[in-house]
Amino acid sequence: MINASSSSHVTSPVTSFEPHIRPTTRLSKPYHYRRNGIYYFRLRVTGSTTKTVSVSLHTNDRSRAMDASSYIAASVRAFHRDCLDAQWHQIRDRLVQSAAGLLNPDHHHDTQRLWGGLHADVDTLRPVLNYGPSPTYPEHEVESLNTNTEPAPNPCPVGLAPLTFEVLSRLYLADRAGEQKPTTLSSTRFTHGVIGNILGELDLRTHTREDLVTLREQLVMTRKPSTVNQMLMKVSAVLNWGMNNGHLVKAFDKKLKFTKGVESARRAFNQDQIGMLMDHASRLPEHSWKRWLLSLGIVTGGRLNEISQLCVSDIQTLESGVVVIHINEFGEGKSIKNKRSERKVPLTDGAYGFDLQAFLRYVETSRLRGSVSLAQIGYRSAGEWVNQHAIPQALGECYVKGLVFHSLRHSLASLMQAKGVPLTHAQAVMGHASGTVVFDTYGSGVPVETIASLLGDLFAAGSNRWSSYLAANQTSPGL
After folding, report:
1. Which residues partner with 39 through β-bridges?
2. 145 found inside a domain
């Protein structure tokens, strides 16, 4: 029998160890997913659905994606082990920093390509993640980054590179670029470059309202307020994405846009001027695309690029007998502004003198000669001709600066508004999005025949006014 005193000195090797130290933040296993073919890396706090962060791995190759993922995970893992008290916002920022360094477009994920064949099977990329000694978080910065209401206790050393607009833009585009059309994406990249140059090394984690106001003031020095507002919208998109994805706690972009001096320089034509333009177009040869470019702009309110990219197959005669142009992006090189821009617009014979049968003969001639596109000149050349030559020549003394092809769109929209055309019907013609669920969901369901009847009545009044104008001035079309 073993007495109590002797048993008190007996213990097992396991129970003689010190208790394991637990980290403040527990992390789940990284998750990988694909969006538009590109691999992404996601990390989250165990048991949380809100404390997550995702970064693009900038590749559609699985092996390269997993290679990049392993290095990002290794960097975060090493930091987590060295800093057991790390809060989620600190771990998240380390991950973003690691990704921004490793996945910089100037770097390659392919070890062999970067270092040569000698290192093909060697873990050579690891030094990319070596950020050197980490300075201590300033207390005020820890509080500003912490998503909780309580300040993080005992902030640990963290190597935080500034979260500049350039870095945040890169992460934003990696996530959202696939949702933008090539032309829009090109404009976005250009605007982001301008913004990045102005903001420089400003750390967006600690940016203030004054920083963004200063940005706006610098932008407007060489740009119109309306242009600056468009650029500020792109800034807001990046900042709000940064907040939604855990990179930022606060963005000070609200009510930053200009409200004065943003009126468009574009004007609308009056009904007499519309008649003069159609008269000018009708004098051009039937086989000339320029005639139909201007005529279609008048009777449809289509954008210049929408008219310029029309194909033979886009001119359709429906079972009801209504002839329409189908504005879409089905075909190489075709693009529309947004999903609401796809539409079928009826062509109204006789509107201001529009000759529908002559246009259909032009379409048939294009088809017989094997042409896919109706246009004989490019979009840029078309814009130069109609804005710099056709419109000033047609209007003569009535021409004023600011009247361009897009003014035809403003004119038709104003005419429909003046005649009390229902909003959903006007949207079906113009391809506008209302910004409301009801109109955006059901507006596109307006029957084409209803729109054809509407436009017929609308243009009849304008045509009658044009006839009265000709009679009063004792002139006739074509003279």
Report:
1. 34
2. no
